[in-house]
Amino acid sequence: MTLVFDLPECAPTVVQRLDPRWKLASVLVVTLACALLQTLGPALAALAGALAVVLLARLPAFWYLRRLGLAMAMFALFLIWLPLTIDDGRLAFSWTGFERLAVLSAKLAAMLSFMLVLLATTPMHHLFKAAGALHIPRLLVLLMLLTYRYVFLLMEEFARLRTALRVRGFRNRANLHSYRTIGQVAGTLLVRSHERSERVAHAMQARGFDGQFRSLDDFSARPADVLGFSMILGYALALIAWDWCARSPFSPLPR
């Protein structure tokens, strides 16, 4: 049995019906704009816009909050120290650091929200074909496709090795025997992965694979797709302009 991404069943919405090419282009544009923001106001506006898109796409709340919360928790482990500073040898709170943490958190939450909407409303094979249609480097698209397809096989292989270890009474402890066993398991997993990759490459060559990603589904752009992309592009440009004005030394806004 092959594992799959735990993607939700979303109700038909206007976001789901958009052309995957225009949808992918929109997400790439708006996430790039979010990454460039450096002030709090535009970052919060980006997060508000992302939440509006999440509601428009009607993503299941539990699925969305669980994945967003997990990513934000991993992010917090690295940047939770930003509001803290050393003042006269004592630990003190910094409002500047807190604002920087808020900006980074809002930007990350907005970018993740847009990406989750894209994944939840677009089948993976449509997404890879759309990436090729947007002239994203072919090698990169194939690497993503093969990674998506075969990373789960490696996970299954690791699960089988772990089960075999536990059946033989192995328990992970902080001693030399455990470290040696873990190293041997890692080596076995790498060797099996290499053997599987060779078999996959031979099977692809036997089927005439020439490096082109093909699909039976055809895309057709509609006025709604162009309108949606134009709205996202205008929204992204407005965020960048607002952020630039907020950072400009000639702006009357507080810096």
Radius of gyration: 23 Å
- How far apart are the first and last residues' alpha carbons, in Å? 56 Å
| Strand residue percentage | under 5%
Helix content percent band = 55-70%
Discrete helix count:
8
- Poorly predicted sequence stretches spanning 5 or more consecutive residues: none
Q: How many structural domains are formed by the residues?
A: 2
Shape descriptor reads flat
What is the makeup of the main sheet? 2 strands, antiparallel
Query: Helices and strands: which structural class?
Result: mainly alpha
Could you give the count of β-strands?
A: 2
Question: What does this protein look like?
Answer:
By secondary structure, this protein is mainly alpha-helical. It has helices spanning 20-36, 40-57, 61-79, 95-121, 124-133, 138-167, 176-206, 223-247; strands at residues 84-87, 90-93. Helix 1 runs parallel beside helix 8 (223-247) and helix 5 packs antiparallel against helix 6.
